[in-house]
Design a protein that fits this description.
2 domains; six-stranded mixed sheet; 11 helices; Rossmann fold; 309 residues; alpha/beta
Length: 309
Amino acid sequence: MLSLTNVHRDVPARAGRFQILKGVSFDAKAGEVTALLGPNGAGKTTTLSIAQGIDKASSGSVKLLGVDPFRANAGLRSQVGVMLQEGGLPMAVTGERLLFHLARLYQAPANISALMDRLQIREFKDRQIRRLSGGQRQRLGMAAALVGRPRVVFLDEPSAGLDPVSRLIVFELIEELKAAGVCIILTTHLLEDAQRLADHVVLIREGRVEAAGSVEELTATDLRPPFTFRLSRALTEQQRADFPSHLTLVEDTSSSQPAVWRVNGIHGPADLHAVTAWWLRHDLMPSDMGLSGKSLEDVFWELTTHDKA
């Protein structure tokens, strides 16, 4: 459904040309969710813009439903749905008016009434879009992307700002689209969502594909999961400065427990010995510790934050 092969994108800069993309290649298939992940500035937005035909690649090949999207006509556009996280919606109209207007642009649109019910839009259908919450706009944006019954859908942060019930509704709808053979390309900063939804993951860093594969394939690589431990008191600057230099110590701010730390770079018993020797030097006794199963977040951290050896 979508294929990018050795795509480069560069723009003018003071020192000549600045490379945004440096040879991005990946495929997205029908009936699958392809998640495009990466830190801010990695090149995700540029990649999506080129894949959708909004921007043009400097070199390389892009095929969306078999044709170059940058040169495509309305025949291709009618088969592609795009949901933007911010912008793209006229603020002065109501949600219902927007959806029925979009439906008139297609020969065989979706059932707007059923679509509003499916995404629970009916409760705010008569409200101007500017007066909607972020989560309500997200649901409306997704509905707008699906009006034309697209074969390919681009979803930018589809679960951003949604409450738990709305997130479940969106997740279920994505699963229904997959079952119907729709190709879904999404971006998200919520790695738990990517791990739950994605059939194929593409990790981009500094304009290159750092890793790609299924969640199972990526979490089964030889990248080691982090070693975590919990202390009863905070670490001092001196203690942190004395931590083994070949390992990385990071406070786990996502944990509900206080003073939980994660160590990246554990590859064997010698690395664990270096950590326990550090504990001994500073009279530290963890109350909890362990090597947990690796998640997509662990792989993302390894690949996008640290240089690989």
